[in-house]
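Predict structure. Chain length: 169.
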Amino acid sequence: MTEFTFDFIEEKVRKKSFGVLTTIDSKGRPHSTGIIYAVSHPEKPFALYSISGSQYAKVRNIKRNPNVSLVVTFPHYWIRFAPASYAMFRGTAEILPDNDVDGRWAMSQSRIGRMNLQTDADDLGSEFVYIKMIPEPTVFCYGLGYGLMELRGNHTEASYKVTIPADRQ
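Prediction complete.
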């Protein structure tokens, strides 16, 4: 069985920008929404950022209950019927003001992130905030790094966990 490292997972996650964030609503139910995300500077503790309007449900939910998860999927573009690989982060989130330096740096590292930064808050009808997710040390993965033939031969063995190194927590 192949051993994967957090460095491998981080490299893959940095190349993506879309994930599904799950928060907990006021009735204790999960609420999932697609987000554009970005990753903290490589020399800082590992964190995931998103920018949002302050009036959105995900922001209200995080203010009430900071427990979240983020799933980043890695679909197979050529073979659509194959299941997507993923990395899932669990942790806590905090709401930061729109002038947060680390959030702005993270979002500015991708084209889609820069486009989000250029959105006019007046057009949104709300002020912007950053969502900063601080993941727990364990990252849950499925299939990431495996070839389709490997998955076909033994798809039940493609789940694994990696640990965020202590110096990145």
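Summary: The longest strand covers residues 128-142.
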